[in-house]
Amino acid sequence: MPPASSSRRADRSSRGAVGRRAAGPGAAPRRRLSVIGVLGEVLITAGIVVALFLGWYVWLGDMVASAEQQQAAVEVQQELQDRWERGDVDIERDADPGEPVIMPPPPEGEVFGAIIVPRFGAEWVRPIAAGVDRKTVLDSYTVGVGHYPDTQMPGEVGNFAVAAHRRTYGAAFGDIDQLRLGDKIYVETVDGWYEYSFRGLEYVWPTGVDVLAPVPSAPEVAPTDRILTMTSCNPRFSTAERIIAYAVFETWYPRAGGAPAEISELAEAAQ
Q1: What's the whole-model pTM score?
Q2: For 56-91, what is each residue's pLDDT tens digit?
Q3: pLDDT tens digits, residue range 194-227?
């Protein structure tokens, strides 16, 4: 009988031979990647890249555009103040409010003022340009808010109607649904600040253009009030319908008397 150590060596040798035979020509071949498998991995990778790009486009892109529009608005405010101080415009330099001064409609695409909504942020302000052309106004990184042609000017009897995106290109009206009853909305021009008070929201189909009438949704009625109408798309990431915010004129503040108390710090910072 062979020694126990010899027997263990024989067993190990036998197991090694079995292992070697299992890995030999008779063993199952390694699974190869198919064309479909490779294509699937490529598509998954491409999907991740596209998702990252869309995330940048919507989120980071909005942040960049919003910051640029904010800075542009501050520059607009500075220019309005400078024009008034130089006397470049024919306006009354009186601090008594009286009837609001109504500026003539500016040419298409021209920036003529700024809109200030404290509910959107303590320093929130955006430029307003004439017209609602997407390329030059609504999609612009230096504008973002457009005044509908053929609607009234700030402080005028009738309907001063403006539009802005709710998502992408700075999303100037991204928080329009957060407005609350009584919130103040200010429109600044070279003449001063026009104060409106928020009254309510309405949702309409894209064809509901009657909201732009001098009396919103009642085009056959003669206007007696001064109204501000803000429009944007609804819901977010969709153009299925429109969200409409209505505000009514309260008073105005001639530039000679300074800005309203609620936004006085913002106005001073822009000077």
Answers
A1: 0.79
A2: 666 677 788 899 999 999 999 999 999 999 887 766
A3: 999 999 999 999 999 999 999 999 999 999 999 9
DSSP assignments along the chain, one per residue:
---HHHHHHHHHHHHHHHHHHHTSTTSPPPPPPPHHHHHHHHHHHHHHHHHHHHHIIIIIHHHHHHHHHHHHHHHHHHHHHHHHHHT-S-----S---SPP-PPPPPTT-EEEEEE-GGG-TT-EEEEEES--IIIIIT-TT--EEEPTTSPPTTSSEEEEEEE-SSSTT-TTTTGGG--TT-EEEEE-SSEEEEEEEEEEEEE-TT-GGGGSSSTT-TTSPP-SEEEEEEEEESTT--SEEEEEEEEEEEEEEGGG---GGGHHHHHHT-
